[in-house]
Amino acid sequence: MTVSTISTDQSAVRELREFPGLEDIAIVYPDDPGYDEARIAWNLAIDQRPAAVASPTNACEVVRIVRAARILGLQVAPQSTGHNAGPLAAQSLDDVIILRTGALDEIRVDPERKTVRVGGGVVWKPAVDAAAAHGLSVLHGSAVDVGIAGYTLGGGLGWYSRSLGMAANSLVAVELVTGAGEFLRADATHHTDLFWAVRGGGGNFGIVTAMEFRAYDFSTAYAGLMMWDISEAPRVLDAWRRWAPDAPDEVTTSLRIMRIPPIPEVPEPVRGRSIVVIDGAVLADDDQAARIIEPLRALGPEMDTFGRMPSEVLVHLHMDPEEPGPGHVTSTMLRTLDDAAAAALLEAVGPGVETPLMIVELRQLGGAVGRPHEGGGVLSHLDGEFALVCGGMAPTPEFASVVAAAGAQVVERMSPWTNGRNYLNFAEDPTDVRAGYPEDAWLRLATIRSAVDPDGVLVANHRIPRLYEHGEATG
């Protein structure tokens, strides 16, 4: 059969229902009773309406879905949890099959090789627990229910990053189905261009059915959080921003200005309050770790929980929501946070300011995150000293617009100190994807995508274009 061009004709969707070989795969269509439940993203503020939602149970079924879509002129968007679904939902999904990978849930730890193999739909918490059972840790993020594949393909920043680097650098192998419908295994010696591209290039190059990554020989860290009232924000921010850039690689922290709603689900000590929180982890023995964070303890927090913590508990440290909910996030990268930058941030979100933003967060970069990783992928490191993330709840579309505008205003206010780059895992709106990568990498990424997805079947949340034969980029 010949391959169609991408179509806007709904007859292709009708043909999908009858396509040979898909009868035993769970596929839900807009007129099916379960469609609204199947199409929901983790962020409930996102309204994605695809042509169909498919839920394969193995790699062979993924191949069959992709090949059918290619023949019919449809597209396929892989999605496990639906974190960071905003840029995808902003596109027309009339001809897109969202492919849910949640049933690809294998977890296998090899304690001898110190590797973990996971299916393409596994989230962090069960993988952390499985590794911990063998005295090992993995480079998880700050949220327990984020999909490992999306997190890692986008780079992966977590509590051990300044010591051990981004999660993509610990990827050993990835098994995926390309837009051409081929099942491939890419690693350091097989399909090396593809292996380079997937380590930071996101979901543009294939639908991950499994990945293997290194685990590390520790199961605890010196970790916790410190808390102050928001009135202390100028003093705490000033001390932390001066300490963070030159802090030892062993420590990774974040600083958040938080406005906590007065709801019963929130613990009494912080309910309805505005606070400053520094949390993080130190990969060192207790005495050395205590010395590293002493400048922060000297600020006299009203709460200090830092101490020896197992990885199964540490994965909950950041208190990110563990259930789906509506929200909006805006982000940017800061090359520095000098006196003027700190003053601008406090003027925007500090004490006495009314804002719909519940959280304004600075992630400490540098250390191993800031150094190119030998043999790494396209995003082996990040430039800049801090990542800035602004977020709030968005229970209605109108309030989502208010939160989005407030976040955009903070980012604009900080623009004199940005570095022109973006970390796409934190970019939950359509953005300039090119800003996520080194300039010299862009053409190579587009060339690789052209090779593995010549007909543009795959739809990533942050799209990297293909190339025409004359070298022009196209979606």
If you had to describe this structure to a student in words, what would you say it looks like?
- This protein has 475 residues and is an alpha+beta fold.
- Among the domains are: 107-217, Uridine Diphospho-n-acetylenolpyruvylglucosamine Reductase, domain 3 (2-Layer Sandwich), CATH 3.30.465; 220-426, Vanillyl-alcohol Oxidase, Chain A, domain 3, CATH 3.40.462.
- Helix content is 25%, strand content 22%.
- The protein has 14 helices and 19 strands.
- It has helices at 11-17, 35-38, 59-72, 86-89, 124-132, 148-153, 161-164, 192-198, 233-243, 286-297, 311-314, 339-349, 397-413, 442-452, and strands at 26-28, 52-55, 75-79, 96-100, 107-110, 115-119, 171-177, 183-187, 207-214, 220-229, 251-259, 274-282, 303-304, 307-310, 327-334, 359-364, 386-393, 466-467, 473-474.
- Strands 10, 11, 12, 13, 14, 15, 16 and 17 form an 8-stranded antiparallel sheet that branches. A 5-stranded antiparallel sheet has the order 5-6-9-7-8.
- A hairpin with a 4-residue loop joins strand 5 and strand 6 (115-119).
- Helix 9 packs antiparallel against helix 12 (339-349).
- The protein is globular and about 65 Å long.
- The chain starts with 10 loop residues before the first helix and ends with a strand.
- Residues 1-8 have low confidence and may be disordered.
